[in-house]
Design brief:
It is a single chain. By secondary structure, the protein is mostly helical. It has 2 domains: 313 residues, no CATH class; 98 residues, 3-Layer(aba) Sandwich (Oxidized Rhodanese, domain 1). Helix 3 runs antiparallel to helix 4 and helix 8 runs antiparallel to helix 9. The protein starts with a helix and ends with a strand.
């Protein structure tokens, strides 16, 4: 890995370690988060078998297992959709990596990798284990937040579509490259997608990360959450662009000098799931098919515009999809009457936005917006058994907040549906009837 990329990787991991510490100190690191950390910690032990494995096998296993974890524990449409997509992505990548590392065309490279591993100090391997563990822990953090919020927003849908397109593009590109290398290991791949685009496999990876970024921008409402959801996908995008440029530089050198492919391959760092270096002299056909061509620019620009468009729409006030969360059932009149009779015995939480809260709210209620819980944890009661009553306009945002508070360990939470909200006076209140 080039010195600049090592620096980017180290800084990214350091930022995520700080984010992890902040979430731990704020009590925001849930049991699911511990599992999201434990999975990479275990699969990244492959670094001690072969240091390159931590960048391909460990990466794909972390995506697969954490994707399944979030699909199962999220218990929401975003969790099933996004977690399932990332699990499928990890499974496909794991299978492709296994087949490639056991192929005849990759045998010589594997021999060089084993020799490099033998010369890698154990301290370096340990540092790689730590950096990759924390990096992979936060890779799907946007999926985790989306699953917890349980809202099928524009960002979730757009992100899922982008991720799916990236998986399809990468799958087709990898299949075409593997087939071409199996048929002619020493030839330059210039058929299928590679006839018009030098690096469609890297392009697919970039599109997948842009999908995660899209979801992250839609679900993160604090700086801490933004760092948690963006750092790893942005790092992977930077890494893919770097790999493309390295392969392009290598190929150009081969065209001009007609050197042996082994010289070129040795110049390309093996720091991710894919081998960027072409295994043959490309000749004249490859002149304009590098990272600088218009195809990758089009993918990057269109995806970036989509990300910005989704975020702009959300910034203007994204309204929860009414179909994403079922409206809560009416509360028993005895509960409503108990809250009205002795509100001091309850923590009443308004799950709406601060502007809605300022306009009118239930007397004695505190404002904890359902999509900004991390920034309001200091307002929550220390006693997890304290009775809590949440409300919003219809009850759906309050239901999302209830799910988040339950994940934190709060046990006694009631949601007041919209039909039991009384807005006839200057202040909001509760009423028994529906």
């Amino acid at each position: 890995m080039h010195r600049n990329m090592r620096m980017v990787f180290s800084v990214s991991a350091l930022i995520l370690i700080v984010v992890l510490g902040m979430r731990l100190s704020a009590g925001a690191w849930t049991p699911v988060n511990w599992l999201m950390l434990a999975i990479p910690a275990v699969v990244c032990l492959l670094v001690f078998r072969c240091f390159v494995f931590v960048f391909n096998f460990s990466y794909s296993l972390a995506c697969l297992l954490n994707g399944l974890l979030l699909a199962v524990t999220g218990q929401s449409v975003p969790g099933w959709l996004l977690g399932g997509l990332m699990a499928a992505y990890g499974l496909r990548l794991l299978w492709f990596t296994w087949k490639r590392t056991h192929s005849d065309s990759y045998a010589a490279r594997m021999e060089r990798i084993r020799n490099d591993h033998a010369n890698t100090p154990i301290a370096v391997q340990a540092i790689l284990w730590l950096q990759c563990t924390v990096t992979y822990t936060f890779h799907l953090f946007a999926v985790y937040l989306a699953a917890q919020q349980a809202l099928v927003t524009n960002a979730v849908l757009a992100g899922a579509v982008i991720i799916f397109c990236g998986i399809v593009l990468e799958s087709v590109a990898d299949a075409q490259k593997q087939a071409a290398k199996t048929a002619a290991p020493d030839s330059f791949v210039s058929s299928g997608l590679y006839a018009r685009w030098r690096h469609p496999n890297f392009g697919g990876e970039i599109v997948v990360q842009l999908g995660l970024i899209t979801v992250g921008l839609g679900v993160a409402s604090t700086w801490g959450n933004l760092l948690a959801v963006l750092v790893t996908p942005v790092y992977v995008v930077i890494l893919m662009v770097y790999q493309c440029r390295q392969a392009d530089t290598c190929a150009r050198a081969m065209v001009s000098s007609r050197r042996s492919p082994s010289i070129c391959n040795a110049a390309v760092a093996c720091c991710h799931a894919y081998d960027a270096a072409p295994a043959g002299i490309p000749g004249e056909r490859v002149k304009m098919r590098f990272i600088t061509n218009g195809y990758l620019r089009a993918v990057l620009c269109s995806s970036a515009l989509l990300v910005c468009g989704v975020q702009s729409a959300l910034a203007d006030g994204d309204v929860p999809n009414p179909k994403s969360v079922e409206a809560p059932a009416p509360l028993d009149c005895a509960v409503i009457e108990a809250v009205l009779a002795a509100p001091e015995n309850y923590v009443i939480i308004d799950a709406r936005s601060p502007s809605e809260y300022d306009t009118a709210h239930v007397a004695g209620a505190i404002n904890v917006p359902f999509d900004s819980l991390d920034g309001y944890k200091g307002l929550l009661p220390e006693d997890k058994q304290q009775p809590i009553v949440t409300y919003c306009r219809s009850g759906r945002r309050a239901t999302v907040l209830k799910n988040l508070l339950t994940e934190m360990g709060y046990a006694d939470i009631s949601v007041v549906p919209g039909g039991q909200m009384d807005s006839s006076g200057k202040a909001l209140s509760f009423k028994c009837g529906d």
